[in-house]
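Incident log, support desk, overnight shift.

02:14 A customer reports that sequence design results differ from what the structure should imply. Their input is reproduced verbatim below. On-call engineer (initials T.W.) acknowledged and began investigating.
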């Protein structure tokens, strides 16, 4: 029987607490687009993307109207482009990036991810060429997102790639300084990056993925906060965890329904559902707000890391019961610029860079959408990346760095991007030098638990 209370609860989650399908992402293999001529590669890429994505936005909009569930973003992720371009006699990765950008625009999607390389153990010629082209590619495109995996729990940390990516982040920001470094906001450095992540800027179609699939990312920080606030103030952590698990189950069920039906209509396989709580700058749609509902005065207070650990775990436990195919990142995101509560906490000095790093040991991703002074040395950025990669490598989890050294801005200033990217205060970083350490080169060996075959 249909339970009217459950119907009303779902309506309230959507209308009052910002429940939405954050993204439906078409993951598409481009491995059959390889050719020795870059012009043919670009033609193959464009034609294949348009063939598979021609109805993506139209059908997603229809489902949004039919089910009255917002589908905020429609996106595409493709095979890491370093693999597709390195077979060319005349490789031109910027030209390929512009082809991806044109395809994304013509398909009507928000972003296209996969201008990527996987270099945790070393770099091929194609990998190096792609990484060197990232700043120009991101400055001359609108929809393209880039990611590079420089570490894993199996391979260790490629410190040569870490330093190269620090230089790439800096240059990407400098080439888009007229837009407050937006190029760096579309670039993420990973440890243990998953090949089925539907969220940008890190989405790509992994080597082990099928020809195509529809991956879905759900979100609902506001729903979780409302659920926590509905409990008695004296409810213990067991009750709190169970409540979050229950609401995560309902959120995931909603995403699973939409994802499977949309995939069937597109006549492609359903991939995974990513359970991540992805906040927005909208009031009431904040992960930081959940911490306050739990009893912390604000994000950044002592106890924030423990609260985030419990939240992340409960979301995964609840969501995993609602779907047979959970993947991607799954947990809680803590992007500074994209979360109204995090923006406030950072602006007031409650949330420091070091506290954010500590929180990344238990959250879904890592240091995300953090603006720092444009004068920050490359070596300091490399040290930040290396620290975050170490957390992921040792803990066998995904970690990432999406950091923006904003040219001409310093501590106390603010950058405003608008939309989902929001705004961010310029945060202080440690002024001590990391130069001699990060310039040693080579690879930090993988931990002993990498030998677990």
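02:41 Re-run completed on a clean worker. Output:
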């Amino acid at each position: 029987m249909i339970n009217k209370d459950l119907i009303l609860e779902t309506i309230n989650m959507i209308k009052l607490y910002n429940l939405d399908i954050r993204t439906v992402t078409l993951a598409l293999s481009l491995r059959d687009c390889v050719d020795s001529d870059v012009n043919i590669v670009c033609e193959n890429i464009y034609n294949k993307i348009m063939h598979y994505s021609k109805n993506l936005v139209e059908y997603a909009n229809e489902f949004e109207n039919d089910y009255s569930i917002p589908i905020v973003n429609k996106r595409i992720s493709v095979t890491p482009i370093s693999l597709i371009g390195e077979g060319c006699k005349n490789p031109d990765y910027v030209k390929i990036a512009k082809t991806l950008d044109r395809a994304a625009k013509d398909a009507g999607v928000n972003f296209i991810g996969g201008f990527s390389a996987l270099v945790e153990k070393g770099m091929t010629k194609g990998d190096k060429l792609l990484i060197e082209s990232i700043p120009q590619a991101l400055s001359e495109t609108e929809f393209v997102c880039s990611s590079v995996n420089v570490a894993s729990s199996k391979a260790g940390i490629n410190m040569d790639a870490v330093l190269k990516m620090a230089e790439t982040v800096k240059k990407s920001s400098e080439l888009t300084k007229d837009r407050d470094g937006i190029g760096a906001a579309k670039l993420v450095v990973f440890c243990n990056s998953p090949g089925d992540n539907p969220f940008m800027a890190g989405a790509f179609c992994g080597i082990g993925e099928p020809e195509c699939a529809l991956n879905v990312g759900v979100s609902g920080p506001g729903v979780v906060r409302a659920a926590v606030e509905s409990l008695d103030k004296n409810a213990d952590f067991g009750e709190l965890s169970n409540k979050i698990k229950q609401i995560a189950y309902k959120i995931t069920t909603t995403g699973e329904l939409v994802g499977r039906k949309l995939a069937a209509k597109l006549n492609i396989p359903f991939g995974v559902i990513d359970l991540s709580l992805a906040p927005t700058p909208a009031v009431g749609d904040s992960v930081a707000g959940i911490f306050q509902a739990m009893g912390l005065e604000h994000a950044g207070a002592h106890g924030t890391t423990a609260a985030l650990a419990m939240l992340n775990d409960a979301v995964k436990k609840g969501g995993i019961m609602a779907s047979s195919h959970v993947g991607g990142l799954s947990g809680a995101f803590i992007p500074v610029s994209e979360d109204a509560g995090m923006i406030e906490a950072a602006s007031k000095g409650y949330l420091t860079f070091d506290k954010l790093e500590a929180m990344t040991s238990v959250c879904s991703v890592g240091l995300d959408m953090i603006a720092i002074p444009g004068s920050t040395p490359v070596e300091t950025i490399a040290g930040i990346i290396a620290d975050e990669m170490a957390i992921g490598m040792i803990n066998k989890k995904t970690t990432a760095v999406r950091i923006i050294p904003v040219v001409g801005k310093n501590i106390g200033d603010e950058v405003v991007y608008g939309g989902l990217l929001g705004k961010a205060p310029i945060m202080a970083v440690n002024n001590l030098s990391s130069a001699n350490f990060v310039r040693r080169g080579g690879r930090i060996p993988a931990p002993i638990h990498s030998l677990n075959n």
